[in-house]
Amino acid sequence: MMEHRSYLPIADVAHLVNGPISCSGCSWDNRGTRSSTSELYRVWFTTDLTENDMVFGAEEKLLKACIEINSKYNPSAIFVYITCVTAMIGEDIETVCKKASSIIHKPVVPVYSPGFVGSKNLGNKLAGKSLLDYVSGTGEPDFITPFDINLIGEYNIAGELWQVLPMFKCSRS
Questions:
Q1: For residues 46 and 62, what is the distance between their CA atoms, to the nearest angstrom?
Q2: Of 147, 158, 161, 170, which has the highest C-beta tally within 10 A?
Q3: Angstrom distance (rounded) from CA 142 to CA 148
Q4: According to DSSP H, which parts of the chain are helical?
Q5: Model's pTM, two decimal places?
Q6: Cα 10 from Cα 6, distance rounded (Å)
Q7: Cα–Cα distance between 129 and 10 in angstroms, integer?
Q8: In the CATH hierarchy, which fold is given to the domain comprising 14-168?
Q9: Which residues, 6+ apart, have CB-to-CB distance to 5 below 8 Å?
Q10: Are 92 and 18 in contact (CB under 8 A)?
Q11: Would you call 126 exposed, middle or buried from its count of C-beta atoms within 10 A (0-12, 13-18, 19+)?
């Protein structure tokens, strides 16, 4: 089975595996992620590609899936995970994501980390590159303070973040 290098801890986006249904089953809800906001990360989406899709292409199916997910769940973004299958058949995922983004007016981010690319470390690096290429620097929050902190790192396996958060609470005297 394939291991996806996913951003499941990002709670307010839709995670869409572009591949056969079996590609999404092995990694769903396997991390100790908790959220104080959206629970959308607990819904795992797939395009459920068939043999026909692999022969004739599935770009239109991916586009329709992005539009449907947006209309039903209204996520802040959609992350599309490339699988071994879609990488091998040469689907133009980046173009489909750009088209979907222009239709739904939200980021649709291709995550290039199919299972055959190598070690977990390389997969994490490639997935991280998607954040740098498509997310970082693309917008600013409506409200910022001089004390804002972004924590980027390994996923929150055992709730380590929840142990660190108290250090960031201000005590006012």
A1: 9
A2: 161
A3: 13
A4: 22-25, 51-56, 59-73, 84-88, 93-104, 120-134, 160-164
A5: 0.77
A6: 9
A7: 16
A8: Rossmann fold (3.40.50)
A9: 111, 113, 120, 123, 124, 126, 127
A10: no
A11: middle
Domain spans, the chain: 14-168
Q: Which residues contact 160 (CB under 8 A, 6 or more apart)?
A: none
Rg, the chain, Cα only: 17
The total of other beta-carbon atoms located within 10 Å of residue 23's CB is 25
Give residue for tokens 């649709």: 108
Phi and psi torsions of 152, nearest 5°: -125, 130
pLDDT at 97: 97
pLDDT in tens, 120-151: 677 777 777 888 888 877 777 788 888 777 66
Amino acid identity, position 113 = S
- Nearest partner of 91 among 120, 119, 59, 66, judged by Cα: 59
Among residues 133, 13, 25, the alpha carbon closest in space to that of 78 is found at 13
Q: How many residues does the chain have?
A: 173
